């Protein structure tokens, strides 16, 4: 295989899709431009796949599935571990590629790149758990179940963690499926480069990587009659559209969607740790708040509210904003122009509705999609900034004194992905953890997820879990076999 290509400026690099082990342009010849969000320069073009291209990918995946399905779980495990070993030699290259393509700072993307092989490795080792069940049914009957892969499955990922999320093909592969992977249209480069690493390890067609816009390429994957299992990570509106499109085919879906996640701070905390945890929980240093699990609403007890704001603002003020390739940079640009304008629109609406901007609230530079990290106080739950997912470096801080009223506000959005509780009192910690409507709750911590724990939300934040045994099993269908002994 060739090395990992990183656009160096000048003429845009022309990428192709991976279909059946071959690199192909879209049948239409159309392309989508990939823009460096730090410079607003076109750095690459990617094919704009449409229905005909997805049909090609499905046919290739069906052939790949025949081979992959014939392998024992032990052989699939061996090949996946070989892939993981190969991936770890390219951590720095993938980190820099994602930095240029997504705008996320290099340090954070290096962390992502280091975790991507672990995703493959974890599910490779979990493949032995693809077990059925035996049932007692009498002396004359043998009854048992087996787990079988779907065949061809679709995996659609967003722009915020491009390479790391591309590795989320792991459970589908471990379960014996062939995969059609669609990365975000603004951050497809690392997924396509990832495809180079399959050469000589995965049989052709086992993983196919297609690119293009969601309403054409993504929609064609969801609607295809031979793709019965779809996994999507992204926004609630897009997840709802996928549910509508998938309904006609009775597709099996897992949806990891948005969040408007609360951080709840009790008065007994160490303020230095809590304010540092607030910044970490916002994912400012890794993705400028462009994370579904960011704690974008912070509920601080009135006894420490003023001091909390003072320390939080002081720490945010020290965050270095600039070139995301610089290892000292903490805040890079947001990913794309549409997101940039959307975030600024939320900031303007918060100001007009009466929120106080304690810091930030503006564009950072004349060039690039940079937004100053922003802290709002005097926010009420009637404001857009308090209710809707911003997906950017904006946090709203609320003052509370009554626990029940605060919990009602924390649970008052349509979302329920994560929550973050800070206190030294185990009673308060567990009371809040039981009351909060979130799929994952951290107590005195921000964002870390040990391997193997389930991740997924309540309410509109999604369907299903990722990252654990149930994720692997969700890529299988259980068949029960009843044998009468004659």
Describe the protein's architecture and organization.
By secondary structure, this protein is of the alpha/beta class. It has 17 helices and 23 strands. It has helices at about 50-70, 75-85, 90-100, 105-125, 160-165, 170-175, 190-195, 215-225, 235-245, 270-280, 285, 305-315, 335-350, 385, 405-410, 425-435, 470-475; strands at about 15, 15-20, 20-25, 30-35, 40-45, 135, 140-150, 150-155, 180, 205-210, 230-235, 250-255, 260-265, 295-300, 355-360, 375, 395-400, 415, 420, 440-445, 460, 460-465, 475-485. The strands form six sheets. Strands 15-16-17-14-13-19-20 form a seven-stranded mixed beta sheet, with helices on both faces. It has a six-stranded mixed beta sheet with strand order 10-9-8-11-12-22, with helices on both faces. A hairpin with a 2-residue loop joins strand 2 (about 15-20) and strand 3 (about 20-25). It is globular. The mean pLDDT is about 95.
